[in-house]
Amino acid sequence: NNTKNKVGIVFLLEEKKNIETSNLYIHITQNPIYASEAFQISTLGYFGDHKISMLHKRRIEIKQNKAFQLEKRGNLIVKDKTKPITYDNLEFEYCPNGWLNIIEEPIREKNGKAYVNLYIAGVDTYNTDESFYSDSKGAMYVKKRFLPEDPLMNTYVAELVERPDANEGGLELFYEHTMLVAAWYNSKVNIEYVDKRIFDYYTSNGFEHLLYQRPRLAFANKIARSVLNNPYGTDKTLKPHGLSLLSDRLSDEYIGNMFFMRQIDALSKFKYSKKYNCDITIATMECEIASSEDEMLEVRIQDEMGTRIKRRKWKRINGRIIEIYV
Questions:
Q1: Taking the model in full, what pTM does it have?
Q2: Is residue 280 pLDDT above 80, yes or no?
Q3: pLDDT confidence of 132, banded at 50, 70, 90?
Q4: What is the per-residue pLDDT across 45-101, written as a single tens digit (0 to 9) for each?
Protein backbone atom coordinates (compact mmCIF):
# COMPACT_ATOMS: atom_id res chain seq x y z
CA ASN A 1 0.00 0.00 0.00
CA ASN A 2 3.01 2.28 -0.25
CA THR A 3 2.45 4.71 -3.13
CA LYS A 4 6.22 5.18 -3.44
CA ASN A 5 6.92 1.48 -3.91
CA LYS A 6 8.43 1.80 -7.37
CA VAL A 7 10.54 4.81 -6.40
CA GLY A 8 11.82 2.92 -3.34
CA ILE A 9 12.83 -0.11 -5.42
CA VAL A 10 14.74 2.12 -7.86
CA PHE A 11 16.54 3.73 -4.91
CA LEU A 12 17.49 0.33 -3.43
CA LEU A 13 18.74 -0.94 -6.78
CA GLU A 14 20.96 2.14 -7.12
CA GLU A 15 22.22 1.60 -3.58
CA LYS A 16 23.40 -1.91 -4.54
CA LYS A 17 25.71 -0.47 -7.17
CA ASN A 18 27.85 1.13 -4.43
CA ILE A 19 28.36 -2.11 -2.48
CA GLU A 20 31.65 -3.94 -2.84
CA THR A 21 31.45 -7.20 -4.75
CA SER A 22 32.74 -9.19 -1.77
CA ASN A 23 29.84 -7.94 0.37
CA LEU A 24 27.10 -8.05 -2.29
CA TYR A 25 25.94 -11.62 -1.62
CA ILE A 26 25.45 -10.95 2.09
CA HIS A 27 23.63 -7.69 1.35
CA ILE A 28 21.26 -9.25 -1.19
CA THR A 29 20.35 -12.29 0.87
CA GLN A 30 20.07 -10.49 4.20
CA ASN A 31 18.20 -7.47 2.76
CA PRO A 32 16.23 -8.82 -0.22
CA ILE A 33 14.02 -6.63 -2.40
CA TYR A 34 12.38 -9.50 -4.31
CA ALA A 35 11.34 -12.94 -3.08
CA SER A 36 13.79 -14.56 -5.50
CA GLU A 37 16.67 -12.81 -3.71
CA ALA A 38 15.54 -14.12 -0.33
CA PHE A 39 15.57 -17.68 -1.68
CA GLN A 40 19.22 -17.35 -2.71
CA ILE A 41 20.19 -18.07 0.89
CA SER A 42 19.52 -21.44 2.47
CA THR A 43 18.89 -20.11 5.97
CA LEU A 44 17.17 -17.38 7.94
CA GLY A 45 20.44 -16.69 9.76
CA TYR A 46 24.03 -15.94 8.87
CA PHE A 47 25.68 -19.21 9.96
CA GLY A 48 23.71 -21.65 7.79
CA ASP A 49 20.98 -24.25 8.27
CA HIS A 50 23.04 -27.00 9.88
CA LYS A 51 24.76 -24.79 12.44
CA ILE A 52 21.55 -23.00 13.35
CA SER A 53 19.80 -26.36 13.69
CA MET A 54 22.55 -27.56 16.04
CA LEU A 55 22.26 -24.35 18.09
CA HIS A 56 18.51 -24.90 18.46
CA LYS A 57 19.17 -28.52 19.41
CA ARG A 58 21.70 -27.47 22.04
CA ARG A 59 19.24 -24.99 23.54
CA ILE A 60 16.63 -27.74 23.88
CA GLU A 61 19.23 -30.09 25.43
CA ILE A 62 20.08 -27.54 28.10
CA LYS A 63 16.43 -26.78 28.88
CA GLN A 64 15.57 -30.46 29.25
CA ASN A 65 18.68 -31.63 31.14
CA LYS A 66 19.57 -30.11 34.52
CA ALA A 67 23.12 -31.47 34.20
CA PHE A 68 23.69 -28.88 31.45
CA GLN A 69 22.14 -25.99 33.40
CA LEU A 70 25.40 -24.64 34.79
CA GLU A 71 24.78 -20.88 34.69
CA LYS A 72 25.36 -19.08 37.99
CA ARG A 73 24.71 -15.36 38.39
CA GLY A 74 26.36 -12.99 40.82
CA ASN A 75 28.70 -10.05 41.34
CA LEU A 76 32.48 -9.89 41.33
CA ILE A 77 33.77 -7.91 44.29
CA VAL A 78 37.14 -6.70 45.52
CA LYS A 79 37.85 -8.40 48.85
CA ASP A 80 40.27 -5.78 50.20
CA LYS A 81 39.94 -2.36 48.58
CA THR A 82 43.16 -1.17 50.23
CA LYS A 83 45.14 -3.66 48.11
CA PRO A 84 45.73 -3.80 44.34
CA ILE A 85 43.12 -5.52 42.17
CA THR A 86 44.60 -8.93 41.40
CA TYR A 87 43.06 -12.32 40.69
CA ASP A 88 43.46 -13.41 44.31
CA ASN A 89 41.81 -10.22 45.64
CA LEU A 90 38.55 -10.85 43.81
CA GLU A 91 35.59 -12.94 44.92
CA PHE A 92 32.36 -14.06 43.28
CA GLU A 93 29.21 -13.50 45.34
CA TYR A 94 26.13 -15.33 44.13
CA CYS A 95 23.16 -13.07 43.44
CA PRO A 96 20.14 -13.79 41.17
CA ASN A 97 20.28 -10.21 39.84
CA GLY A 98 24.07 -9.98 39.59
CA TRP A 99 25.86 -8.49 36.60
CA LEU A 100 28.09 -11.50 35.89
CA ASN A 101 27.01 -14.92 34.63
CA ILE A 102 29.47 -17.83 34.97
CA ILE A 103 29.73 -21.55 34.32
CA GLU A 104 32.70 -22.03 36.62
CA GLU A 105 35.06 -19.93 38.66
CA PRO A 106 38.67 -19.65 37.43
CA ILE A 107 40.72 -22.82 37.87
CA ARG A 108 43.77 -22.37 40.08
CA GLU A 109 46.88 -24.46 40.53
CA LYS A 110 46.98 -26.53 43.77
CA ASN A 111 48.89 -23.76 45.57
CA GLY A 112 46.39 -21.11 44.49
CA LYS A 113 48.44 -19.68 41.62
CA ALA A 114 46.68 -18.53 38.47
CA TYR A 115 47.21 -20.17 35.11
CA VAL A 116 48.53 -18.17 32.17
CA ASN A 117 47.01 -18.64 28.69
CA LEU A 118 44.18 -20.82 30.02
CA TYR A 119 41.51 -18.16 29.46
CA ILE A 120 40.94 -15.61 26.70
CA ALA A 121 38.24 -12.91 26.53
CA GLY A 122 36.43 -10.94 23.84
CA VAL A 123 34.55 -7.65 24.32
CA ASP A 124 32.13 -5.64 22.20
CA THR A 125 31.50 -2.18 23.63
CA TYR A 126 29.10 0.66 22.78
CA ASN A 127 29.44 4.42 22.35
CA THR A 128 27.11 6.29 24.71
CA ASP A 129 25.77 5.93 28.25
CA GLU A 130 22.14 6.43 27.22
CA SER A 131 20.46 5.38 23.99
CA PHE A 132 16.87 6.09 23.04
CA TYR A 133 17.07 4.48 19.61
CA SER A 134 19.01 1.27 20.20
CA ASP A 135 18.95 -1.73 22.53
CA SER A 136 22.67 -2.34 21.99
CA LYS A 137 24.59 -3.45 25.06
CA GLY A 138 28.15 -4.11 26.05
CA ALA A 139 29.11 -7.78 25.91
CA MET A 140 32.02 -9.89 27.13
CA TYR A 141 32.74 -13.61 26.92
CA VAL A 142 35.58 -15.56 28.51
CA LYS A 143 36.64 -18.82 26.90
CA LYS A 144 38.51 -21.58 28.67
CA ARG A 145 41.09 -23.40 26.58
CA PHE A 146 42.57 -26.85 27.26
CA LEU A 147 44.01 -28.05 30.56
CA PRO A 148 45.07 -31.72 30.86
CA GLU A 149 42.71 -33.88 32.94
CA ASP A 150 40.12 -31.08 33.16
CA PRO A 151 36.82 -32.29 31.65
CA LEU A 152 35.50 -28.77 30.90
CA MET A 153 37.57 -27.45 28.01
CA ASN A 154 37.24 -25.29 24.90
CA THR A 155 34.10 -23.72 26.28
CA TYR A 156 32.81 -20.34 27.41
CA VAL A 157 32.84 -19.94 31.19
CA ALA A 158 31.86 -16.30 31.79
CA GLU A 159 29.28 -13.95 30.26
CA LEU A 160 28.73 -10.24 30.81
CA VAL A 161 25.96 -8.46 28.90
CA GLU A 162 24.86 -5.07 30.24
CA ARG A 163 24.33 -1.37 29.64
CA PRO A 164 24.46 0.46 33.00
CA ASP A 165 22.47 3.66 33.25
CA ALA A 166 24.42 6.92 33.50
CA ASN A 167 23.38 7.31 37.14
CA GLU A 168 24.78 3.84 37.88
CA GLY A 169 28.15 4.58 36.32
CA GLY A 170 27.41 4.26 32.61
CA LEU A 171 30.16 3.22 30.21
CA GLU A 172 32.90 3.36 32.82
CA LEU A 173 31.06 0.86 35.00
CA PHE A 174 30.91 -1.53 32.04
CA TYR A 175 34.64 -0.96 31.43
CA GLU A 176 35.34 -1.64 35.11
CA HIS A 177 33.33 -4.85 35.07
CA THR A 178 35.20 -6.19 32.02
CA MET A 179 38.49 -5.31 33.69
CA LEU A 180 37.56 -7.13 36.90
CA VAL A 181 36.49 -10.24 34.99
CA ALA A 182 39.71 -10.27 32.98
CA ALA A 183 41.79 -9.87 36.15
CA TRP A 184 39.87 -12.67 37.89
CA TYR A 185 40.39 -15.12 35.04
CA ASN A 186 43.91 -13.81 34.38
CA SER A 187 42.96 -13.44 30.72
CA LYS A 188 43.83 -11.07 27.92
CA VAL A 189 40.93 -9.11 26.41
CA ASN A 190 40.47 -8.71 22.66
CA ILE A 191 38.30 -5.71 21.78
CA GLU A 192 37.07 -4.39 18.43
CA TYR A 193 38.85 -1.07 17.87
CA VAL A 194 35.88 1.25 17.40
CA ASP A 195 36.02 3.34 20.58
CA LYS A 196 39.36 4.39 22.06
CA ARG A 197 37.91 5.15 25.49
CA ILE A 198 37.88 1.56 26.74
CA PHE A 199 41.57 1.18 25.88
CA ASP A 200 42.35 4.46 27.64
CA TYR A 201 40.39 3.26 30.68
CA TYR A 202 42.47 0.08 30.99
CA THR A 203 45.71 2.03 30.51
CA SER A 204 44.89 4.81 32.98
CA ASN A 205 43.94 2.26 35.63
CA GLY A 206 47.13 0.24 35.25
CA PHE A 207 45.61 -2.72 33.39
CA GLU A 208 47.12 -2.22 29.96
CA HIS A 209 48.79 -5.63 30.35
CA LEU A 210 45.34 -7.24 30.06
CA LEU A 211 44.68 -5.76 26.61
CA TYR A 212 45.18 -8.17 23.73
CA GLN A 213 47.62 -6.84 21.18
CA ARG A 214 46.54 -6.21 17.61
CA PRO A 215 45.99 -9.65 16.03
CA ARG A 216 48.33 -10.66 13.25
CA LEU A 217 45.27 -11.42 11.16
CA ALA A 218 45.29 -7.69 10.40
CA PHE A 219 48.52 -8.19 8.42
CA ALA A 220 47.54 -11.30 6.52
CA ASN A 221 46.38 -9.49 3.37
CA LYS A 222 42.82 -9.52 4.63
CA ILE A 223 42.23 -5.83 4.03
CA ALA A 224 43.36 -3.60 1.21
CA ARG A 225 44.75 -0.88 3.45
CA SER A 226 45.75 -1.00 7.11
CA VAL A 227 46.87 2.03 9.08
CA LEU A 228 48.67 0.87 12.23
CA ASN A 229 47.57 3.42 14.79
CA ASN A 230 46.22 1.09 17.48
CA PRO A 231 48.56 -1.34 19.28
CA TYR A 232 45.59 -3.18 20.80
CA GLY A 233 42.28 -4.52 19.53
CA THR A 234 40.95 -5.83 16.24
CA ASP A 235 40.54 -3.50 13.27
CA LYS A 236 36.80 -3.10 12.62
CA THR A 237 37.36 -3.64 8.89
CA LEU A 238 38.22 -7.25 9.73
CA LYS A 239 34.68 -8.00 10.92
CA PRO A 240 33.68 -10.04 7.81
CA HIS A 241 36.83 -12.16 8.19
CA GLY A 242 36.30 -12.52 11.94
CA LEU A 243 32.73 -13.70 11.38
CA SER A 244 33.99 -16.18 8.80
CA LEU A 245 36.47 -17.49 11.38
CA LEU A 246 33.68 -17.81 13.96
CA SER A 247 31.52 -19.64 11.43
CA ASP A 248 34.34 -22.12 10.79
CA ARG A 249 34.61 -22.72 14.54
CA LEU A 250 30.91 -23.54 14.92
CA SER A 251 31.29 -27.31 14.62
CA ASP A 252 28.93 -29.80 16.29
CA GLU A 253 31.54 -30.35 19.02
CA TYR A 254 31.96 -26.60 19.59
CA ILE A 255 28.20 -26.06 19.90
CA GLY A 256 27.95 -29.08 22.20
CA ASN A 257 30.35 -27.32 24.59
CA MET A 258 28.19 -24.18 24.88
CA PHE A 259 26.12 -23.51 28.01
CA PHE A 260 25.06 -19.85 27.92
CA MET A 261 21.49 -19.72 26.61
CA ARG A 262 21.70 -16.06 25.63
CA GLN A 263 24.84 -16.69 23.56
CA ILE A 264 23.31 -19.71 21.83
CA ASP A 265 20.15 -17.76 21.03
CA ALA A 266 22.09 -14.75 19.68
CA LEU A 267 24.24 -16.87 17.36
CA SER A 268 21.21 -18.70 15.99
CA LYS A 269 19.47 -15.41 15.14
CA PHE A 270 22.46 -13.42 13.93
CA LYS A 271 22.15 -11.44 10.70
CA TYR A 272 24.92 -9.44 9.09
CA SER A 273 23.20 -6.07 9.07
CA LYS A 274 23.86 -2.59 10.45
CA LYS A 275 20.26 -2.54 11.69
CA TYR A 276 20.76 -5.70 13.76
CA ASN A 277 22.32 -5.45 17.22
CA CYS A 278 24.94 -8.17 17.43
CA ASP A 279 26.92 -7.35 20.58
CA ILE A 280 26.90 -10.96 21.85
CA THR A 281 27.97 -12.40 18.49
CA ILE A 282 30.74 -9.82 18.04
CA ALA A 283 32.10 -10.37 21.56
CA THR A 284 32.15 -14.12 20.77
CA MET A 285 33.92 -13.37 17.49
CA GLU A 286 36.58 -11.25 19.22
CA CYS A 287 37.21 -14.10 21.61
CA GLU A 288 37.62 -16.58 18.76
CA ILE A 289 40.02 -14.30 16.89
CA ALA A 290 42.30 -14.19 19.94
CA SER A 291 41.83 -17.90 20.58
CA SER A 292 42.88 -18.64 17.00
CA GLU A 293 45.96 -16.42 17.36
CA ASP A 294 47.02 -18.14 20.60
CA GLU A 295 46.03 -21.74 19.94
CA MET A 296 49.68 -22.88 20.05
CA LEU A 297 50.48 -21.13 23.34
CA GLU A 298 51.26 -23.38 26.29
CA VAL A 299 49.16 -23.10 29.44
CA ARG A 300 51.48 -22.37 32.37
CA ILE A 301 51.35 -21.40 36.01
CA GLN A 302 51.82 -17.71 36.80
CA ASP A 303 55.23 -18.11 38.51
CA GLU A 304 56.62 -20.09 35.58
CA MET A 305 56.47 -16.98 33.41
CA GLY A 306 59.40 -15.44 35.25
CA THR A 307 59.80 -11.81 36.18
CA ARG A 308 59.79 -10.53 32.61
CA ILE A 309 57.49 -11.68 29.83
CA LYS A 310 58.47 -11.18 26.21
CA ARG A 311 55.63 -9.43 24.43
CA ARG A 312 54.92 -9.04 20.74
CA LYS A 313 55.17 -5.46 19.45
CA TRP A 314 54.94 -3.78 16.07
CA LYS A 315 57.50 -1.19 15.03
CA ARG A 316 57.97 0.80 11.85
CA ILE A 317 61.55 0.35 10.58
CA ASN A 318 62.64 1.97 7.29
CA GLY A 319 59.02 2.38 6.27
CA ARG A 320 58.11 -1.26 7.00
CA ILE A 321 56.04 -2.62 9.90
CA ILE A 322 58.16 -5.26 11.66
CA GLU A 323 57.09 -7.70 14.39
CA ILE A 324 59.52 -7.68 17.31
CA TYR A 325 59.61 -9.09 20.84
CA VAL A 326 60.58 -6.93 23.79
A1: 0.76
A2: yes
A3: very low
A4: 788 888 998 999 999 999 989 999 999 999 999 999 999 999 999 999 999 999 999
Quote the mean pLDDT of the chain.
81
239-257 average pLDDT score: 92
Count, residues in the chain: 326
3-state SS, one letter per residue, for the chain: CCCCHHHHHHHHHHHHCCCCHHHHHHHHHHCCCCHHHHCCCCCCCCCCHHHHHHHHHHHHHHHHCHHHCCCEEEEEEECCCCCCCCHHHEEEEECCCCCEEECCCCCECCCCCEEECCEEEEEECCCCCCCCCCCCCEEEEEEECCCCCCCCCCEEEEEEEECCCHHHCHHHHHHHHHHHHHHHHCCEEEEEECCHHHHHHHHHCCCHHHECECCHHHHCCCCCCCCCCCCECEEHHHHHHHHHHHHHHCCHHHHHCCCCHHHHHHHHHCCCCCCCCCHHHHHHHHHHHHHHHCCCCCCEEHHHHCCCCCCEEEEEECCEEEEEEC
